[in-house]
Design goal:
Length: about 280
């Protein structure tokens, strides 16, 4: 039976445990961030088994299955939140903030190494995220302090740190230059002017006349088609996890209108965006 939660956000912390009763290999119906503060063992995510150790982070999304095999006493925090976390689109500053949150976690969705740990880039990052997890658990567990505004602010900071440490895509057996270009495209996908051939050629010191040929030689797909294909992937994510209209999604991702998105979606996926959402 799938695991579910009945609040928008649930935060749990377990200290020096050798078993976790809630942790079963069944599908989850929420998003989850696991932070292993200390301990050793294995985590199995969608039949992919990896070792875990101190100060490691794992990301789970709806329909994932996972379980922990604990070898030494483990301290772990779990942040679980529902789709509705992204669906509270209202006017003004809150709408802008929610969009920014979703863009951060969207980076995590697309990471090809999502079933491995998120590798933080420095000790300062590790210490910072540990402090944020402690603050989040303290705020959530104390009914006299518990504030949704504070919880969201801390979680926003955690998502920001995680998203800037995620390798968006891993180009197997490729040089660092194409890896940099891919990550740059993903991080700037909402800013079309930064993805023009002219801008990319200046950014990566490659001739404007040659950059498309270089990209295709490395990725076996044209630069323009790659960008469009990635935008359709992002549209899929929004269709599944937000209540944005197809028109709003088209506008956010730089399509002319909803018909343009529908036509592109049909061409690449064999189904319209509307039918995809209904399914």
């Amino acid at each position: 039976m799938p695991r579910a939660i009945f609040e928008n956000i649930v935060i749990q912390k377990f200290e020096n445990v050798t078993t976790l009763e809630f942790c079963q290999y069944t599908a989850i119906r929420f998003f989850e961030i696991l932070f292993i503060e200390k301990g050793k063992g294995h985590i199995i995510i969608n039949n992919h088994k990896v070792a875990y150790a101190d100060k490691q982070i794992f990301i789970l999304i709806p329909d994932d299955k996972y379980n922990l095999e604990i070898h030494t006493p483990t301290t772990v925090s779990a942040i679980k939140f529902l789709n509705s976390f992204f669906n509270e689109y209202v006017s003004g500053a809150h709408k802008t903030q929610v969009k920014e949150w979703f863009r951060k976690i969207e980076i995590i969705f697309q990471g090809t190494n999502r079933t491995s740990e998120i590798q933080l880039s420095s000790t300062n990052e590790e210490n910072g995220i540990l402090a944020l997890f402690k603050a989040l658990c303290t705020e959530y567990s104390d009914e006299n302090l518990k504030s949704e505004t504070v919880l969201k602010s801390i979680l926003h900071a955690i998502l920001h740190i995680i998203s800037r440490n995620v390798i968006v895509v891993k180009a197997e057996n490729q040089d660092s230059k194409i890896q940099e270009i891919l990550n740059y495209i993903h991080f700037h996908i909402h800013t079309p002017e930064m993805l023009s051939k002219k801008h990319l050629s200046e950014q990566f010191n490659i001739s404007e006349n040659y950059i498309s040929q270089y990209f295709k030689s490395k990725m076996n797909i044209g630069l323009k088609k790659y960008i469009i294909t990635y935008k359709v992937k992002l549209a899929e994510t929004r269709l599944k996890y937000t209540n944005l209209t197809i028109t709003e999604i088209a506008q956010e991702l730089g399509f002319t209108d909803s018909s343009h998105l529908d036509k592109t979606f049909l061409n690449l996926k064999g189904i319209t965006a509307k039918k995809f959402r209904e399914s």
